[in-house]
Automatic annotation (TrEMBL):
Ketoreductase domain sequence ranges: 3-176
Organism of provenance: Murinocardiopsis flavida
Chemical reaction(s) catalysed: a (3R)-hydroxyacyl-[ACP] + NADP(+) = a 3-oxoacyl-[ACP] + NADPH + H(+)
Pfam families: adh_short_C2
Subunit structure: Homotetramer.
Protein name in UniProt: 3-oxoacyl-[acyl-carrier-protein] reductase
Pathway linked to the protein: Lipid metabolism; fatty acid biosynthesis
Function summary: Catalyzes the NADPH-dependent reduction of beta-ketoacyl-ACP substrates to beta-hydroxyacyl-ACP products, the first reductive step in the elongation cycle of fatty acid biosynthesis.
GO terms, biological process: fatty acid elongation
Oxidoreductase keyword on record: yes
The organism's taxonomic lineage, starting at the top: Bacteria, Bacillati, Actinomycetota, Actinomycetes, Streptosporangiales
Enzyme Commission (EC) number: 1.1.1.100
Length: 234
């Protein structure tokens, strides 16, 4: 049976690839987006996840269209990179508010229905940066590391209700952002990746598809690195 799926930040990059992958598996997929246009063929729901009222309204729209959310992928995120000595308090707090507190808002809203049905899948999209650290990204790394503690704590809270919570930690992935980097910087990055290349958004999407499948029913609280070996040991 098709499940009701919601992917936050699902209109570009990794989020869009995840949304299409789950739709291809037969699920009814909705995506939230803050700007731009939603992917063709998917239910697009405008939502700023820093606003609890908008989050609640988005869930109500999804519930009316395809039923209570059974699979949540918390993917929406932003970066505001800067050295700590030059970083404003707003640049720090806004990244945490979107990447970490935003995941809290959508997960809190999603677990209501999941607990009633005693089943559900939650996947949080973190980053290898949250495990290894990265100069100039103390705000981003803190938010992504926070998702690990958040996800594992939630997994312990709701595991008895048949709900799994897992974390995916992508490395450097082929996106518009990485494509814009100078060739020298791209070569330097790839040199530090044991597999010697960027990952693809599809590789992240297939990992998420597995974690939301019946085959992963006994996996919860896990951090799955999809980073070409960059963060091994973390």
């Amino acid at each position: 049976m098709s499940r009701s799926v919601l992917v936050t930040g699902g209109n570009r990059g990794i989020g869009q690839a995840i949304a299409h992958e789950l739709a291809a598996a037969g699920d009814n997929v909705a995506v939230t987006y803050r700007s731009g246009e939603p992917p063709a063929g998917l239910l697009g729901v405008p939502c700023d996840i820093t606003d609890s009222t908008q989050v609640d309204a988005a869930f109500k729209q999804v519930e009316e269209a395809q039923g209570p959310v059974e699979v949540l992928v918390a993917n929406a995120g932003i970066t505001k990179d800067q050295l700590l000595a030059l970083m404003s308090e707003d640049d720090f707090s806004s990244v945490l508010d979107t990447n970490l507190t935003g995941a809290f808002r959508v997960a809190k809203r999603a677990v209501r229905g999941m607990m009633r049905k005693r089943t559900g899948r939650i996947v949080l999209v973190s980053s290898v940066v949250g495990l290894m650290g990265s100069g100039g990204q103390v705000n981003y790394a803190a938010s992504k590391a926070g998702l690990v503690g958040f996800g594992r704590s939630l997994a312990r809270e709701i595991g008895s209700r048949g709900i799994t919570v897992n974390i995916v930690a992508p490395g450097f992935i082929e996106t518009a952002m990485t494509a814009a980097l100078p060739e020298e910087r791209q070569a330097e990055i790839k040199k530090n990746v044991p597999l010697g290349r960027y990952g693809s958004t599809e590789e992240i999407a297939k990992t998420v598809r597995f974690l939301t499948s019946d085959g992963a029913a006994y996996i919860t609280g896990a951090v799955i690195p999809v980073d070409g070996g960059l963060g091994m040991g973390h």
